């Protein structure tokens, strides 16, 4: 969960009226980022990243330079139908707002981790598989109140894949390594719950390959700019043995 905490100025990037392309940290904090969050640091740009040892890929925080690609991706007719929350159509101003919000979340998470000396991360705070109302509110409140590292915390993830990368096994390989080599050992994560639209076999296939088990289906009311219809979602859960 992203929690806004007052942190020392040295623990956060210097604020700027113009969002910098990359999230960077001063050299003095590089050892702490590596020790606490097990992140690597780009020696030239000071951007933290998570290397994937089995692939020639890295996972980075948000970048301002991603904006044009994200506009194109979320308006792609093979991607947009499987989205729930982004506005439709997805305009450059929507991406700018999203990236700014994401940057604040990233700064808060890393700042909290540096302050507490232990890794923190954004947790499940939507529980869309539960009908909107008191039960969903209670699930969110409970999940966000648990201390970092609690084995009963429920995590989730969401991912998008460029159409040209579909069918190459990227998501299965990346998510497996992210889970097994970082989320479990560093965050002590034990439970992941995800949902995928019932007509999205690609997402379902990825999670089944990763050992997730189906837990049922639920109805989800789409936003008005996505026709406001009811759609079925399949729910999946993974627990560390």
Automatic annotation (TrEMBL):
<dbReference type="InterPro" id="IPR016181">
    <property type="entry name" value="Acyl_CoA_acyltransferase"/>
</dbReference>
<protein>
    <submittedName>
        <fullName>BQ5605_C005g03256 protein</fullName>
    </submittedName>
</protein>
<dbReference type="GO" id="GO:0016747">
    <property type="term" value="F:acyltransferase activity, transferring groups other than amino-acyl groups"/>
</dbReference>
<dbReference type="Pfam" id="PF13302">
    <property type="entry name" value="Acetyltransf_3"/>
</dbReference>
<dbReference type="InterPro" id="IPR000182">
    <property type="entry name" value="GNAT_dom"/>
</dbReference>
<feature type="domain" description="N-acetyltransferase">
    <location>
        <begin position="57"/>
        <end position="213"/>
    </location>
</feature>
